[in-house]
Structure formats: C-alpha cells, structure tokens
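From: lab user (bench 3)
To: helpdesk
Subject: output format question, protein + copper (II) ion

Hello, I'm new to running complex predictions and I'm not sure whether the block I got back is the full result or only part of it. Here's what I submitted:
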Amino acid sequence: MVPDIKIVEEAKRPLAMNPKKFGLWLFIATVIMLFGAWTSAYIVKRGDMGWSEIIVPDLFWVNTGIILASSVTMVWAVRAARKDNFESLKIALSITTILGIAFVIGQFMAYGQMVELKEHFTGGPVSHSFVYVLSGAHAVHLISGVFFLIFVLVAVFQSKVHSKNMNQIEMCATYWHFLDVLWLYLFVFLLLNK
Amino acid sequence: MATTDIHIHQDVHHHDDHGHEHDEHHEGNFWTTYIFSLDHKIIAKQFLITGIFWALLGGTLSVIFRLQLGFPDMNLDWLKPVLGEWITPEGKLDPEFYLALVTMHGTIMVFFVLTAGLSGTFSNFLIPLQIGARDMASGFMNMLSYWFFFLSSVVMFVSLFLETGPAGGGWTIYPPLSALPQAIKGSGMGMTLWLVAMALFIVSSLLGSINYITTVINMRTRGMSFTRMPLTIWAFFFTAIIGILSFPVLFAAALLLIFDRSFGTSFYLSDIYIGGEALAHDGGSPILFQHLFWFLGHPEVYIVLLPALGLSSEIIATNSRKPIFGYKAMIGSMLFIAILSFIVWAHHMFVTGMNPFLGSIFMLLTLIIAVPSAVKIFNYVTTLWKGNIVFTPAMLFSIGLVSFFLTGGITGIFLGNSAIDIQLHDTYFVVAHFHLVMGSASFFGMLAGIYHWFPKMFGRMMNETLGQVHFWITFVGVYLVFFPMHYIGIAGFPRRYYSWTNFETFSGFADLNMLVSVAAILTLAAQFIFLFNFFYSIWRGRLAPLNPWNSNTLEWTTPRKPGHGNWVGEIPSVYRWPYDYSKPGAKEDFIPQHIPFSETPESNLPHENELIKLETSNGEGAIIIEGNKH
Ligand code: HEM
Ligand SMILES: [Cu+2]
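Helpdesk reply: Thanks, we reran it on our side. This is the complete output you should expect:
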C-alpha cells in the first residue's frame, strides 16, 4: 500500500538563537550607542576652547575594585549553577548583589567627594557636568542590573535556577559583565581625558 | 529508492483552513483581545489607527499655517472657536502659534505618523506573517511598545492645549531657542512636554526595533533563508537596526537638553544676554546639539523611507507580474544606504561654520548616497518594464512613490553640495526636497501598504475606484504643493517665516503661495475619500478572497482573517524566493513560496531541479510533512 504521505525536499531550518538572549544583546547595543554619544560629545567639547580639567574622585578607584570583584563572583555563581552546586550559587550570587549595591552607594559617596572638591553638576564648567552625566547614567543602568540580580536571586532561592535552566542567570551575567566593562570604559575614558 | 514512489499529489500539509473561520475562542474578553492585546496583528492595527489619527491632525495643522502663508490678509476669526486666543483680535494667526504649528506638524509627521505609524503598523503586521512565525519574539514587549507610544501620544496631544502652546522651536528643537523658556512661549511647558513625549517615544521605538530584529533573525519558518526573505522584511530589518543605533543618540541629546532647561547645566548654552544681562549658563555649545541631533536625524529620514521602499518593492513586483529586478542589488543598496546614513549627518550643518575641509568630506559621503538610491529607482523601473502591470490603487501609490523619490532625490544632490547649500539652506527649496523625498514618498508607501494589505488586515476589500480617485487627486495635489516651493526657495524665501509681505522681493510670489495653499487644502480634503473608503470597507467591503493579488508571500496562505497564531495547522515551509512571477513554463503567473520545486517540474530551472534530488537520495535530507514536528 502506498501511504498517504508526501515527501519533498527538506526545507532547511534557518539559524536561530534564544530570542531573549538575542534581545538582550540588542538592548546592550542601544546602551553602547547612548554612552557612545555622550563620550563623543565629551571629546568634541574637550576640543573646544575653555575646557576646565575634571576631578576624578578617589572613591572611583575603590568602586572600580568593587565592581570588578562583583564580576568575578558572578562568574563563580554561573559556574556553580552549571554544576548544580546550589550552596555556592546562593553565596556567590548574594555577594554579587551586595557588591552591586555597594557600588551604587559608593558612587553616591563619590559624588559627596566631588562636591567637596568643588565639582558640581550645575553651575560649574560643562566638563564637570559631564562627569555626573556619565557616571549617573551608568548608575541608573547599574541599578536596573541590581534589580535583575535580585530577581534571579529570588529564583535561585526558589530552586528555579539549575544546570537545565540557565537562561535567566546567563542573561543576568551577560548584562552584569557588560555594566562592569561599561564602567571600566567610562573610568579609563575620564582618566585619559581629564 | 522506495521513497521516490510515494509521490502522491495530495496536498495534505498545507492548510485545510478554508472551512475554518477561526472563531476567536481564546478566553480573551474585549480588553485582552483589542486593548492589551499581545497579538501582532491587533497591535499593528492599533499603530495604524493611532497613526491615521495623527496624520489627520498633522495635516490639519499644516493647512492652518498654509492659510497664513497663502492668504496673509485673510480674516481668521472663524477659527476662533477652535483656536481661541491663538487668533489675535485683528483676526490673524498669532506669530508664535505659527511657529508652534510648524513644529508640531513636523514632529507629528516625522515621528508619530511616518515612524510609529508606518514601521509600527507594517513591521508588526508583516514580519510574522511573511517569515512564517506565529507571533513576534516577545508579544509582551510588543504590547509595551504600543503603550509607550500611546502614552507619548497623549503627552504630545496634551501639550497642544497648554495656554502657552506646544513646543515652538521647530521639529529639530535647536537650542538655545528651545533651551530658554524666556525665548518664546513655545520653549516653556510645551517644550518640556515635547521632551517627555519624545523620551517615551524613543523607548517605544527601541522596544519595537529589538523585537523586529529578534523576530526576523530567530523566528523564520523552515526554508526561509535570508535570501528567500521578501524585500519588505529586509527593509523592516534594516530600519530596525538603524533605529537601534540612532534613537539612543537622540535620547542622549534630549537628556542633556533637559538638564540645561531644568537643572541649570550649560551643555548647549553660552554667552547669552537677555535684556542686557548675561545668563549664568556658560561654556556650552549649541553646535554640539546639532551634531547629536543629526546623528539621529539623518538616519531617521531613512527609518521613515526604507519601510516604504520595502512595501513598494513587494507591491510593484506583484502587480507587474514580474520578479523584482535585482533582488540582491536591492538588499545591497539598502544595506549601503543604512551604513552611509550614519556618516553624512553634517550635511545639515554646512552653514554652522564648520571647517570647509570637513564640509567637503561630508559632501562627498552625502553625494555617494545618490548611488544606491539610483540603483533602487533603476530596479523599480526595470521591474515595471514590459510587465503585465495591474493598476491597483496600491500599485499606483507605489509608482507615485518612485516618482517622488526621484524628484526629491535629485534636489538632494543639489543640497548635498556645500557651496550650493549655503544659498539654499533653510529656504523653501529644502522644504520641497524633503517633503517630496521623505514626506510624500513615505506617505505614498504607507498608503500603498494599506491598500495592498487591507484584505489581510480586515478580511475585506477596499473600493478600487475610490482608491484610484484618491490616488490621482493626491498625486497631482502633492506636486502642486511642493513643486512651486523649489522656485520660491531658489528665490531665497526662508522657511519657518510667519510673514513675507514686508519684503518687497517676495511679493512676486504671492500667487504661487496662494496656489500652494489651495492645492494643500484640496489634497487634505482628498484624504477623506480614503478615510471613508477605509472605515466603510472595514465593515461593509466586499469579502476578500484568500489571495486577492495572486501574490507569492506567506501571509496569503493564512485564513481570510488569521486568528492568534496565524496558521491553523502547521506553519508552511518555504522552498523558493518570493518573486516567482510569470516564470516561463509555469501553469499560472505566480508560484507561492510554499510550493516545492517537485511540484513544478514544468518551470524549474536546472539548479532548482538539483534541489529536488534531495528527495531521491534515500529519503535522507528529506522530510515527510504530515503534521510532524521535526
Ligand atoms: C540623494 C540623496 C539625498 C541627498 C544628497 C540629500 C541631501 C540633503 C541635504 C544636503 C540636506 C540639508 C539641506 C539644508 O538644510 O540646507 C537635506 C535635508 C533633508 N533631507 Fe535630504 N538628501 C537626500 C535624500 C533624502 C532622503 C531619501 C530623505 C528622506 C527619506 C531626505 C530627507 C531630508 C530631510 C527631512 C531634510 C531636512 C531636514 C530639516 O532641516 O528639517 N533626504 N538633504
Ligand atoms: Cu540628511
């Protein structure tokens, strides 16, 4: 008997990635453009006449250390999740979150230092305003990252994150490392273009 | 070997949908189905209706200021009931309100109609349907995208009713004018709301773009390789990429402006004296704003145009009954345009005192854009050449688009020369240029898209005769409005001027200005033919056949009114490119994308026959399609 089916040439399945992860990368692209615009504006302005040198507060160094450490613990957390090592996962992710919050607080304390050194957001030279805009906009993104971390942390404590369900934590890690690199870029940029 | 025997021509795999009228039996109530819908088709319609609302409003605003320009002595008291205090006691338009009208007209048309209304409607509607996906990658983000747009619309709309009026600094909101509330009324609260609305708009646009790109890359059906995608999809794809790269920069610019306006920073402000007193702002640069703005602004004009070009490519190929000429060249030129659009922005700034050498570089890059643009026009014309043209309203509007793209593009080449631009900058010549190439061309693309995909959107046909009347009046009207502006502009008449009667030089243009205004009023009036046709046909139009234009793309394989999920059974697979029209030897003059080559031995080319061989190779690499997954 001839079965009632039909065979045709195979239509190839086109390449496909996880749409959510892909979307995250696109979001990261928009953030890159945002800061790209500001740092370009900074350079253009710096080329103008009447640029007054910016002051980079010492606390920025400390905060840079904090955020670098948080990236390390983030890597640790992802590794632990992949190995289903839940104890380490909880510890590592909690530390990351705390470091993230510490970074935000540290940035605000750095603003205190800047004010003491007579570097103000408004009323002073444009260069000084730029330092606030760059670090402030980064802080806003970082706060969104902390919320993401807390979200994942809750999922971890509900045992929803494990080696078979890595998407969430991997996306969180991608975003977090990106924010870390973004800060490094901004910090080095400010140091080089005082 | 055995597998070759089982060739039975009975189309089991594609939809048995004719009987099923998908009754929306999802638990959805009115709110989840029509208001907070996650379905891309409903969201597309939401964008469309909102866009049409804005288009009408934007058009009406322009007619009001055309009254002032065409009939400077007219008594406008009869507008008092609508405009109230904006009509002065002498029955004239308030000069500052005139500026607000121009600003709002530009903002509404560029962003709310031709960006959100166009991309929002057609990217949402066509991407899943044409690539064979059940919905967008993220329905939720898609919904958010609409509602951010809606919020943004509300804020912008509210700003129209402020006592001090809406923003008045031009759609490009150059500081210092826009930064100083003391400067004009339109830089007060109206400007603040403008900035808030645009911030929301940018969020909406980014959410949309992220979704479009993700969907196009990741959600295509089997066989829908990049080189089999319809040009519409390519156009939406490039548009979304441009949007993602440029809108954040507008956001950056706007945020600094907000800081300058409300927090006292001086990014864009310096050395400003008001009433002899220096302002505290010091050390900023207004030119910086222009750089940031036009880094978005120029790509934005292609965000507006590319979707229209994509829609018309599809419509022109379908209605010429010919494959699109130069499919790959079309993709290549769009890619090239997209890249170039990021490195030409300073052609809007030739007169800002930039280094002439830098100006020459931007001039060179700008003029290069003419090359891919010309390639596209050439391809449209060669597609039409010796085609079996069917003059549907959609086709007419697409041909109209090609015409405007050409006439408007040519004046771009004049403006792109920095030496000539110094004379022509900020005159009506520029107004003529961009209204033809961007305004009218994109508008025609949008209308063409509506006429063409209306049957899929609403399951009914629009009236063809009314569509043709609408086309001819609009087409002639647009040229009557914008062609004379070239002469007025070459004579040096500056744009955004409230009144020109005080200048002896320009009095010779009174007649021409009057003609333009009359034509503008008639053109706007003709749009009501369209509106009537549109709304009447939604409920009363003739029922649409499944594939009214004998088109090849996947959306025409769905039921008459596709439900949530688009296809009733399996999503069809794709075996060929979308432009197999009038293929020699074929039974009909079109072969839809989901027909395998094995079913069309009479028209296959040698290399296409190769593809069939896959099925004789012991079934390896072949699939049996019968409700199977993988
Ligand atoms: C051959 C290609 C083109 C060239 C060389 C060109 C060149 C130019 C130049 C030099 C200007 C600045 C004029 C001035 O302000 O003095 C301009 C303005 C403009 N162009 Fe084009 N253009 C081209 C195509 C397009 C296209 C395809 C669009 C839109 C889809 C477009 C939209 C605009 C708009 C909106 C403005 C005016 C913006 C404003 O000042 O309000 N142009 N063009
Ligand atoms: Cu431009």
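A quick orientation on your result: The interface with chain B takes residues 2-20, 22-23, 26-27, 29-31, 33-34, 36-38, 41, 44-45, 48, 50, 121-123, 125-126, 129, 133, 137 of chain A (CB under 8 Å). Let us know if anything else is unclear.
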